[in-house]
Amino acid sequence: MAKAIMIQGTMSNAGKSLLVAGLCRVFKQDGYSVAPFKSQNMALNSFITKEGLEMGRAQVVQAEAAGIEPSVLMNPILLKPTNDMASQVIVNGEVYANMDAKTYYQHKRDMVPEIKKAYDQLASQYDIIVLEGAGSPAEINLQENDIVNMYMAKLAKAPVLLAGDIDRGGVFASLVGTMALFTEEDRAMVKGTIINKFRGDKTILQPGLDMLEERIHVPTVGVVPYLHVDIDDEDSLTEKFTRKNKVALIDIAVIRLPRISNFTDFNVFEYSEAVSLRYVDSVGQLGNPDLIIIPGTKNTMEDLLWMRQCGLEAALIKYGAQGKPMFGICGGFQMLGRELKDPYNVEHGGTMKGMGLLPTTTVFEREKTRTQIKAHFVTGGKGYFAALDGVDVEGYEIHMGQSVVDEADLNKVNDLTHITEISSVKANQMAGLFQDNIYGSYVHGIFDKENVVKTIVSVLLKNKGLDESAVAGLDVKAYKEKQYDLLADGLRSNMDMERIYQILQEGV
């Protein structure tokens, strides 16, 4: 079985996911086969594997850093919130049930056999497993039914490195407080602490580190600076939503829906110097962008109601009427249609009027579509982005609804992409459609190929009367590999890797 080590954090957004990805890269560089593992993840950013199974996006990023194919074994339980009190529970990549928080809390220990099976299978295939905890391990009201923090550490016999976020302040109090709330058995599992997201002179920090070790009797194995690496964020705590955007020639606005999912679809635009990508959640923030994107969501109908109530729907309809381009992905595509029907209460229940910008009707079904696809654009030289014709696409679909065009309206719309492969099986079907300047697709990752973004940005520049000839393509895979290497360099320079290897070897 593999050796194991676990990163836990004193709070959400302490940087656990990034630290796990970095350690995966370090161990890979050192010649070990390594895989990430998180028994239970709560996130709306998910991914579909080659087998058509759904897993958390964070473990996909960590698998990429480890240089391996993502597997649902790395994240056997995924919770996708549908509202403030309930989630869709996904077990081993497939929908298990929709549960409110109390029901899931009462039954989550029932998931332990599946978690153990997934972990054991993964551990039999690799030299090292880097586990990730969730939230805080010291939430005393949740410890009894824990399956993701100390319970998982004991199950995997994984020594724990406890990370605290110094950027938000209170890092020493959070580390000492977390250790104080642990049982004696749990405290013994912690073999090192990490001060994460540090800015400044480490020598000024040293007295605090000395006092920390005196208080908790655990060594500090790293003071990791605020690393400026461009790696996909896990969930809605991302700083992308609130940070100040660069000034650029092209302004792209993504609607920040309350239940936004798979916002990593748009990261590729941020790699272009010509683009400013920003997230907006009010009419006042919208302005007059060159392109609007409505992203995916875990609850299309409720998020459409939110847009209706805050005035964004009316603003988007007016924007589309001006001939400017709009792109809806997955749930955003569904919103653009005329009508949404939910006969099985999959989301909101009942029937709802859509935005009416595309002549589609969406019916939410009991079964979720989960596929990887390969395709190419087939614009036929029509529409705002006519130049996309023939450009290759790769991505995946995750959706409950199916959207159809009424027969009487078939001549009013154009197919957007032609699918040639579904989950590694040859196919011949269409996906997505467009009408004039309004585009809709179920494909997540539709923008990831370098020629897609290059073409879209070039068209936007040309329509503003700007020179599009200097827009460069970007090899996204090579870019990501460079970022993972930079992350590994940052950890090697600021963590005691010799001590970490010792902790890994000694176990618990």
Describe this structure in words.
The protein has 508 residues and is α/β, with parallel strands linked by helices. It has 2 domains: 3-231 and 481-503, 3-Layer(aba) Sandwich (Rossmann fold), CATH 3.40.50; 250-465, Class I glutamine amidotransferase (GATase) domain (Rossmann fold, 3-Layer(aba) Sandwich). The protein is 31% helix and 30% strand. The strands form 5 sheets. Strands 13, 15, 16, 18, 19, 20, 21, 22, 23, 24 and 25 form an 11-stranded mixed β-sheet that branches. Strands 2-9-1-10-11-12 form a 6-stranded parallel β-sheet, sandwiched between helices. The radius of gyration is 23 Å and the shape is globular. The model has no long low-confidence stretch (mean pLDDT 92). GO terms for molecular function: ABC-type vitamin B12 transporter activity; catalytic activity. InterPro entries: Class_I_gatase-like, CobQ/CobB/MinD/ParA_Nub-bd_dom, CobQ_GATase1, CobQ_N, CobQ_synth, GATase_3, P-loop_NTPase.
Secondary structure: helix percent = 25-40%
Shape: globular
What structural class do you assign from the helix and strand content?
A: alpha/beta
Largest sheet geometry: 11 strands, mixed
What's the average pLDDT? Answer: 92
Instruction: Write the CATH homologous superfamily of the largest domain.
Output: P-loop containing nucleotide triphosphate hydrolases
Uncertain runs: none
In CATH, the architecture of the largest domain is: 3-Layer(aba) Sandwich
Number of helices: 16
Give the total of domains: 2
CATH class of the largest domain: Alpha Beta
Distance between the termini: 15 Å
What gyration radius follows from the Cα positions, in whole Å? 23 Å
Q: Hey, roughly how much beta strand do the residues contain? A: 25-35%
List how many beta strands DSSP finds. 25
- Write the CATH fold name of the largest domain: Rossmann fold
